[in-house]
């Protein structure tokens, strides 16, 4: 004897032997695609928003990927984790002891990654990117603003997943470096986080001096840092033309591409072990300026150029790059002239 499976079955409405089928509320499903609900024992189809753990079915939206140690995790139902710790970056830990072993601390009721101090690059960074992110971005925003330095202690910023640290190149009295989490370059979370947190807006809009820079770090899952360096090679003369005063600054000096690739940290573009660091950018003026730089990075990642003839052509009225540069307040004629010069002297 055969019966017709429910159209909600994983196999659809096809015939199946009756001895392989079970009736669930008037609909037929394969026995193997059903399980008893953990709370009542009622049989439910696993195709209806339930997943099976062990021999029981659980609502999929009540399952969590839970850290059980520093190096392990498991999918668990909320009923299995009475001491579950929810961290501010979305991580779930089995209990407070596991959370602490994974580097989190309870700060005023919020579990977060914390540093022992607010020293220069002293702690682990938050990562707000996704597991399938291709391009990732992070910002280092240097400021000199006495009022804001005192107004917002580092711990306040840490609660948001960002860091506020000392930097030896800045004024001891007024300087701070605001370091963002790692974000997916093409997701909107960075803009959303800034938009909903006035603390970040104030710190980004803070005062700055010519000692301040605005480094941007980019990484790519699909290629090495050196490959990424080569991918952006045609844009380096444009960056020099955008910020000519920065080209002779020791900490971000403009060099020929091969020299930067072989050289040390203090170049306009520096190859780290894990990311490509753009050091050429000067101080971030405000939130608008930061978002403009984010969009420029997106343009660079989306628009691969392998020669030095294309960019001047893209700097003509009506193109996306032209519009972007005008929005950034740049003089197009000076950019074209500067690009043509730097592409000959620093290619």
List keywords for this structure.
347 residues, alpha+beta, 7-stranded antiparallel β-sheet, 4-stranded mixed β-sheet
- Structure classification: alpha+beta
Give start-end ranges of low-pLDDT stretches: none
Question: How far is the N terminus from the C terminus?
Answer: 77 Å
What value does the average pLDDT take? 91
Radius of gyration from the CA trace? 27 Å
What portion of residues belong to β-strands? 15-25%
Continuous helix count: 12
Helical percentage: 25-40%
Largest sheet: 7 strands, antiparallel
Q: What form results from the Cα inertia axes? A: elongated
Tally of DSSP β-strands: 21
What's the SSE blueprint?
Blueprint: E1 2-4, E2 15-17, E3 21-24, E4 27-30, E5 34-36, E6 43-45, E7 50-53, E8 56-59, E9 63-67, E10 73-77, E11 85-86, E12 92-93, H1 96-101, E13 104-107, E14 110-113, E15 135-144, H2 146-151, H3 154-158, E16 163-165, E17 175-179, E18 183-184, H4 189-196, H5 198-204, E19 214-220, H6 225-231, H7 236-242, H8 257-262, E20 269-271, E21 276-278, H9 287-302, H10 310-314, H11 320-327, H12 332-345
């Amino acid at each position: 004897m055969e019966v017709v499976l429910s159209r909600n079955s994983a196999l659809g409405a096809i015939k199946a032997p009756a001895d392989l089928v079970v009736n669930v509320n008037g609909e037929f499903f394969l026995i193997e695609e059903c399980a008893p609900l953990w709370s009542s024992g009622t049989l439910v189809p696993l195709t209806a928003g339930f997943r099976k753990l062990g021999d029981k079915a659980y609502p999929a939206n009540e399952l969590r990927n839970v850290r059980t140690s520093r190096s392990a995790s498991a999918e668990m139902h909320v009923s299995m984790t009475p001491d579950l710790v929810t961290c501010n970056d979305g991580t779930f830990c089995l209990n407070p002891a596991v959370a602490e072993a994974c580097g989190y601390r309870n700060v005023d009721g919020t579990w977060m990654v914390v540093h022992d101090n607010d020293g220069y690059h002293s702690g682990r960074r938050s990562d707000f990117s996704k597991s399938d992110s291709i391009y990732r971005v992070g910002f280092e925003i240097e400021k000199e603003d006495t009022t804001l330095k005192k107004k917002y202690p580092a711990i306040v910023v840490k609660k948001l997943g960002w860091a506020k640290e000392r930097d030896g190149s800045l004024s001891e009295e007024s300087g701070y470096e605001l370091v963002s989490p790692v974000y997916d370059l093409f997701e909107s979370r960075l803009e959303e986080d800034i938009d909903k947190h006035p603390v970040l807006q104030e710190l980004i809009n803070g005062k700055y001096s010519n000692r301040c820079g605005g480094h941007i770090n980019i990484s790519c899952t699909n290629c090495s840092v050196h490959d990424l360096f080569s991918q952006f090679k045609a844009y380096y003369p444009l960056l020099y033309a955008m910020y000519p005063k920065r080209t002779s600054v020791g900490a971000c000096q403009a060099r020929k591409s091969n020299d930067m690739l072989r050289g040390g940290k203090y170049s306009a573009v520096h190859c780290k072990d894990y990311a490509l660091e753009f050091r050429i950018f000067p101080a971030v003026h405000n939130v608008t300026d930061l978002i403009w730089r984010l969009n420029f990075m997106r343009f660079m990642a989306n628009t691969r150029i392998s020669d030095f003839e294309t960019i001047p052509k893209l700097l003509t009225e009506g193109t996306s790059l032209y519009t972007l540069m005008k929005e950034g307040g740049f003089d197009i004629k000076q950019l074209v002239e500067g690009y043509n010069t730097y592409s000959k002297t620093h290619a």
